[in-house]
Fold:
Amino acid sequence: MNQMNVNIGGKADHSYEIYIGEEILDRVGMILARDGRAQRYVIVTDTRIDALHGERVQAALEKMDLRVDRITVPPGEEAKGIETVLAVTERLTALGADRQTVLIALGGGVVGDLTGFAASIYLRGIPVIQLPTTLLAQVDSSIGGKTGVDTAAGKNLLGTFNQPKGVFIDIAFLKTLPDEMFKSGLAEVIKYGIIESPGLLDDLEGAVASGGLRETAFLERIIAAACRIKKDIVELDERDRGLRRILNFGHTVGHAVEAASGYALSHGESVAIGMVAAARLSGRLHGLPVEDVARIEALIRSVGLPDRIPAEMDLEEILSRLSLDKKKEGGTIHFVMIRKLGTPFVNGGIPEEVLRDTLKGLKP
Ligand code: NAD
Ligand code: ZN
Structure:
């Protein structure tokens, strides 16, 4: 089992462990029992994950004599709203959950974000532990303490910074994860490789070549590498004031494409297209070698993610979404670029003609 410590701002009460391994539920129970932190635990999960794993997780913790209840919410992004948070808090009240209660977010990014949010407001804040079950949650959303829910006006418009008290990553959960969801998480892993660790790209290329993308040893390696990169960045910039922006590589165009597709494209698919756009812009404006641009595109294609903007999608629609971003960010769109693999920086001003032309080049 891999273990790493996250320490935000050098404060002891903002320090927690990330554990990564396969079939680690028994150990999770033991660690929680040993720490003796809480009187009771409430697992929050969605109905789909609950059907697959809920009982097993609860039983593993109960085996250690922990008191555990389970609350379910509907699956999917549609459930990531304030009504669901209120429903969770009402259930917590009905269960008599008090300040000695710890929430366990068992699920993907949706469950993680809304449970983290509920934990940060229930009784003015109770602890939360993350037990991520999607690749995206294991490499991204469970680490870093951003919580949130969507409103009618947009995604993640309500939320808090609330670091978990621990993150337990059990790779065994990924066995039931559908391929589409798995690929979506891979997009973020490719992102980490591009911005921080070309070695991770070598590893991904090797696994593609050997057909071992879902093998345990490989997964444990790339998840640990990704967690380390994310935690290092979050430790330096918890509140997203600077460095943390580099995690948005591929996400500026990615978010615009995702919205322009009416969310028919998944987040990972959209980010994949956005990464190709960012790589090409980096080549054009900042000297990223053509062979690196080609390497990024080839890797994205080889894992089955899209590297082109869908034929039916209107470029002007994407561009107008990008200028909405511009208003949000106070006049400039923050594009993350790379000069070479592993060297990201934020570029505030990309001329619109260059952007339009680059996007045009991504039409099949
Ligand atoms: P998700 O949470 O919606 O999960 C996707 C689907 O997979 C759900 O239907 C779920 O029931 C199912 N599922 C989950 N685990 C499974 C498993 N092991 N086996 C079978 N099915 C399983 O999607 P996601 O991609 O994990 O998360 C997306 C969310 O994460 C978005 O809301 C996004 O805003 C958020 N996010 C947050 C951060 C952050 O820093 N907080 C970062 C990135 C993304
Ligand atoms: Zn993302």
Notes: Residues 216-236 form the longest helix (21 residues). The chain has a mean pLDDT of 95.
